[in-house]
Design goal:
Elements (H helix, E strand, L loop, with lengths): L6 H17 L9 H4 L8 H12 L4 H32 L1 H18 L5
Helix pairs in contact: 1-3, 1-4, 3-4
């Protein structure tokens, strides 16, 4: 109960989400000129990349849907595991921890007070 097995529904949902991303000028990726110059914050970068790939790479609907599902459902688990492993490795190697700390400090210094 509660699950719609209609693939037409899934297809339409996928296309609707992509349309919303494409029509919303707030979505942005770090490489956009307005983001680099500090005029615009990064917003929904993964969604924007999937949307752009659907146009620039001529991806079919099945691939678009697969990428969206991968990002929405698989990404959270792998991110958690990656961050846990990173924390463990940094604890074992203080020299890398110090280097990372310096890079993060420099990143925020370069932002000059604007949001990342």
């Amino acid at each position: 109960a509660g699950i719609n097995p209609d693939m037409e529904f899934a297809k339409n949902m996928c296309l609707e989400m992509l349309d919303k991303v494409g029509s919303n000028p707030n979505f942005s990726v770090p490489s956009e000129e307005e983001v680099v110059s500090g005029k615009k914050p990064v917003f929904g970068p993964l969604s924007k990349i999937v949307y752009e790939a659907s146009n620039t790479l001529d991806m079919n609907l099945k691939d678009q849907f697969g990428n969206m599902m991968l990002i929405l459902f698989a990404g959270h688990d792998t991110t958690g595991h990656t961050m846990t492993w990173l924390t463990y490795e940094l604890a074992k190697h203080p020299e890398y921890q110090q280097k990372l700390h310096q890079e993060v400090d420099q990143f925020f210094k370069d932002l000059n007070g604007r949001d990342p």
